[in-house]
Design goal:
There is one protein chain. By secondary structure, this protein is α+β, with helices and mostly antiparallel strands. It is 59% helix and 14% strand. It is built from six helices and seven strands. Strands 4-5-7-6 form a four-stranded mixed sheet. A three-stranded antiparallel sheet has the order 1-2-3. The longest helix is centred in the N-terminal third of the chain and has 43 residues. The protein is rod-shaped and about 150 Å long.
């Protein structure tokens, strides 16, 4: 453009000073503008590079793939869990309905002798072992029981064999030697009561050298006979 020359008045010193200040300010702003333009250019380059980089896209695709896999696994887990529940239920029903007669009888005796602290004796067909069901739903191996409770379980099994044999063949005499000695009085009374009931169909002979065991049997209706001191014979038989 054409250069315009402005004639300033002779006394325009102040105006000249203002013009110089304006020129200086313009130069400063112009320099700042250059810096801003350079920063904008760098930012534009970074945006373009980010758009060209497919890292975010790959991460989103990987996230979608992982989420889809989790959903498939959750569906499979739900199906398998339901199938497992059905199998466990079928197995429980089978074990409950197909227990050997001796085990069923032993369970009935054991429940009575433990005053229903335990609810069932069963054969775990999966583990091929004898188990005891507690009143709170626990399933115990006989080794987890106390000594006295294990002795009650063994006695219940023996009595179950006797009862089953009687049902299938003939009632035989039953001879027991100090089977109450390791039991507390309450359990001993329950054993004596059960033996008294068996005495209605079997000849039951209890051998003991302990007066309190004799008394527990007599309390249930046994006839006591002294053999050779200090040996005593408690006889439970039909009245």
């Amino acid at each position: 453009p054409a250069t315009r020359v402005t004639q300033l008045p002779a006394d325009g010193a102040a105006a000249r000073a203002r013009l110089a200040a304006a020129r200086e300010a313009f130069q400063k702003v112009h320099g700042q503008r250059s810096v801003v333009l350079a920063e904008l250019g760098a930012l534009a380059e970074r945006i373009s590079a980010a758009r060209a980089d497919d890292t975010a896209h790959r991460l989103r695709s990987e996230e979608e793939r992982v989420v889809a896999g989790i959903r498939r696994a959750a569906r499979e887990y739900a199906v398998l869990s339901y199938a497992r529940a059905l199998l466990d239920d079928a197995r429980a029903r089978f074990e409950a309905e197909h227990q050997p007669r001796v085990v069923q009888l032993a369970g009935d005796f054991f429940v009575e002798l433990t005053d229903r602290r335990y609810t069932r004796v069963a054969v775990d067909f999966g583990g091929r072992r004898l188990v005891v069901h507690g009143a709170r739903g626990e399933v115990l191996d006989p080794s987890q029981l106390s000594r006295g409770t294990r002795e009650l379980l063994v006695l219940a099994l023996h009595l179950a064999v006797v009862r089953d044999f009687a049902e299938q063949h003939v009632a035989l005499p039953l001879v027991l030697d100090d089977v109450l000695v390791n039991l507390d009085p309450a359990r001993a009374e329950r054993v004596a009561a059960l033996l008294a009931r068996l005495g209605r169909t079997h000849q039951v002979i209890v051998l003991t050298c302990h007066p309190w065991i004799r008394d527990a049997c007599v309390h249930q209706g046994a006839r006591s006979a002294l053999l050779d001191p200090p040996t005593q014979l408690s006889l439970l038989s039909p009245s």
